[in-house]
Amino acid sequence: MDAVGKAVRQAAAKAGRRFWWEADSGELGDAELPGFAKALRRLRVNLQRHLDSLSASANKQLQ
Predict the structure, then answer these.
(1) pLDDT digit string, tens, across residues 15-25
(2) What domain of life (predicted)?
(3) Closest among 35, 50, 51 to 23, alpha carbons compared
(4) How far apart are CA 45 and CA 60, in angstroms?
(5) Residue 23: CB partners within 8 Å, gap ≥ 6?
């Protein structure tokens, strides 16, 4: 785990959150924010890809 990941996980734990994406961005330093934002964008893209796949599968089953 890199330094940004460690800082994000610590911020999430400090806030009593279970998942890294729930970290309070106000608890992160200026150095960690770009990495956190990049990770959130990757998460969003991956989730959208997964949802699109599920939707396509559901549509095929309905036909």
Answers:
(1) 999 999 999 99
(2) Eukaryota
(3) 35
(4) 23
(5) 8, 9, 11, 12, 15, 17, 36
